[in-house]
Amino acid sequence: AYELKSPHTGLHWLRFAGPFQVDDPVELDPARPWTMTDAAELGTPMFPYMARSKSTFYFYVPKGTQILGLYATGRLNLIDPHGTEQRLNGNGHLSVQVPEGTDGGFWRVEDWNGRQLQLLTAPPYFARHPDELLLPREVVEADSGQ
To answer: Going by C-beta distance under 8 Å and a sequence separation of 6 or more, which residues neighbour residue 62?
Structure first.
């Protein structure tokens, strides 16, 4: 086991590189917010508690986005901010029409059973709750100006 300590306050960026074994998962403190970039790693043995659970992950679709492009393997349920669910099953590039009024909002992924999930037309960041989601400054500034 490793404990990482930093002399710096504020946000930190951690990058993990494998190989990881199923019995060596990274444990995240549930009391601390976290944002994961590019959820390609969510289904790997490094995060087995996420991939095997009925976890929900939130992401942000910027204002003006008309098509949500993503790369996914496996089955997943996408739910827009109005609660409309789209069940996707695929292995490759997928696209989803962004209904009017759901851009500029938090979408979520539920019951995902795949190994890769990458957002291509939205910031590639996921969190357990919208309050934990970190977004690029440029996206926040652009959306607050519209």
So the answer is: 103, 104, 122, 123, 139, 142, 143
Cα–Cα distance for residue pair 75/89, rounded to 1 Å: 4
Distance CA 106, CA 9 (A): 28
pLDDT in tens, 55-107: 788 999 999 999 999 988 888 889 999 999 998 887 889 999 999 999 999 99
Between CA 23 and CA 128 the distance in angstroms is: 22
Q: Give the model's pLDDT for residue 10.
A: 76
74 by Cβ neighbours in 10 Å (0-12 / 13-18 / 19+) ranks as middle
pTM: 0.78
Per-residue confidence (pLDDT) for residue 130, from 0 to 100: 94
SS3 of residue 51 by DSSP? helix
Q: Residue 128 corresponds to which tokens in the numbers above?
A: 């357990």
What beta strand segments (E) does the chain contain? 35-37, 56-61, 67-79, 85-97, 105-110, 117-119, 125-127
Alpha-carbon separation of residue 35 from 14, 65, 83, 88, 109 (angstroms): 10, 21, 22, 23, 14
